[in-house]
Amino acid sequence: MQSSVSPSQPRKYKVQLDVPFSDQKPGTSGLRKSVKQFQSPNYLESFIEATLVTLPGVQGGTLVLGGDGRYGNLHAIDVILRMCAAHGLKKIITTVDGILSTPAASHLIRKNNAIGAIILSASHNSGGPDGDFGVKINGPNGGPGLESLTNRIYDATKTLKEFNIIEFPPLSLNSIGNFGIGSMEVQVIDGVEDYINLMQNIFDFDQISSFISSDFLIAFDALNAVTGPYAKRLFEDLLGAPAGTVRNGIPLEDFGGCHPDPNLTYAKDLADLLLSGNHYSFGAACDGDGDRNMILGRKCFVNPSDSLAVLTANANYVPAYSAGLSGVARSMPTSAAVDVVAKNLGISCYETPTGWKFFGNLLDSDQITLCGEESFGTGSSHVREKDGLWAVLFWLQILAAKKCSVSEVMANHWSRFGRHYYSRHDYEAISSEIAHDLYRNLESKLPSLIGRSFGGSNISHTDNFSYHDPVDNSITEGQGLRILLNDGSRVILRLSGTGTKGATLRVYLERYVAPNGVLQQDPQKALSDLITDIDSLAQITSRTGMKAPTVIT
Ligand code: VG1
Ligand code: CO
């Protein structure tokens, strides 16, 4: 363990800002911009100053700090430590090499009664000098800061004139230790250990371990991002999977040039490995900051909306949930597969806007135990973030308990509950003007669409989704254009809040087939008339000039 004594009085000083920044509005999860933008003078400092003057409890408080290891991580930690010391924080908990996954940060906040965390990540966006950087602010419950907090931070950025910082040489984060910067304590801990202990309290590791040692080969792809060290400890050291089970397991500043987004496009190597049907029985990948997961079986891709429904239906196999679930929630664009399971279990199912922060109140008030999003996010009340490796362990526990394959689990699920054919089409990097025009144009047509024939059925309801939080009664409007059909199908359009280049249009398509219905195999085929009709209604091809989506999930 290293330790150092701080110089008696490190110099505290103020830096003037020429003009306040006007573009620091946090999106779906934090402030996410290109590295180039973050490199402009005082850009990071401005957002951190606004955060430290806004976040409740800074004076004398404890804060968690770390990131996904992307380019800029260590520099940002150095700057933030010195700014925290200038703002009177009592203690910062940071991690060896600054490596800390989003769910692990959420756990550390809760375990240490911290006032929150600053998590340095642009999640699934690419990294490196030409990639993206991001700052996420989490609150004392461990979850992403609510809109009310991020709005106040944003307001502060617009009037800032200066920031406060302390002169101090960079701390070495290459091993655990305790330091002081002025009167502030800095504790450098192993960012993996507490998280692993939490997982051991939730799952039956012995059962998983004996299952995967019985000719059930697994492959995990960390995509050169934050989950590598966590996954190696979990799968190889504790569960006894062979060395090499974890691929791309060392966090790299540029993620090895790949896009750390676990989907069929960006995690193609792993997808090919499983879908080609060779000797692997199970595959999984997580995103840059470790909160997303993709699950694959032999020749089988699990749609994330289905994954939430499967976890809900089989939660009884996991020790921590064996007493039952209080309720579940899904984001609005996520398919209603989990709704059918919730109804069957007799528990409540909530529909929230996109973004994990909207699950926070429901989790805190114990109205839900599990929740998820179609964007490869699943989680539970164990933390207040979505949790990639937790979802992987959950799947392994179900498979170990049922002693069957992923495709058997899916086939059984559909034959019991019916199947929600589902797909998301992303049109990335469209000009912002074209995207907003397209969106506004469709929005203006919505009222006139009722009763019209669409996608093989008739339109029964249209709106721009608005959410009434049942816990704090807040209303959040404008969360996505919904077209609902008489047969239960849905088409939803949203503009992304996490992209950094132009605008990203997301089109979500869903069609339900009851258990006794004919089960076609390919979702794109099952959804083809919805795809054609939304394209002509919203004029996607003609307005964007794109013949096909950038990513199809
Ligand atoms: C996307 C997803 C959303 C998710 C968000 C953050 O947002 O659609 O479901 O919560 O990313 O995920 P958007 O606004 O681009 O659609 V992560 O892994 O960045 O924390
Ligand atoms: Co993420």
Describe the structure in your own words:
By secondary structure, this protein is α/β, with parallel strands linked by helices. The chain has three domains: 2-190, Alpha-D-Glucose-1,6-Bisphosphate, Chain A, domain 3 (3-Layer(aba) Sandwich); 196-417, 3-Layer(aba) Sandwich (Alpha-D-Glucose-1,6-Bisphosphate, Chain A, domain 3); 419-552, 2-Layer Sandwich (TATA-Binding Protein). The protein is built from 18 helices and 28 strands. An eight-stranded mixed sheet has the order 1-9-10-5-4-6-7-3, with helices on both faces. Helix 11 links the parallel strand 16 and strand 17. Helix 2 (43-54) packs across helix 5 (147-159) and helix 10 (304-313) packs parallel to helix 11 (337-345). It is globular and about 75 Å long. The site of alpha-D-glucose-1-phosphate-6-vanadate has 19 residues, from loops.
CATH topology of the largest domain: Alpha-D-Glucose-1,6-Bisphosphate, Chain A, domain 3
- Kindly give the count of domains: 3
Largest sheet: 8 strands, mixed
CATH class of the largest domain: Alpha Beta
Helix content: 25-40%
Strand content: 15-25%
CATH H-level superfamily title of the largest domain: Alpha-D-Glucose-1,6-Bisphosphate, subunit A, domain 3
Q: Strand sequence of the main sheet, in spatial order?
A: 1-9-10-5-4-6-7-3
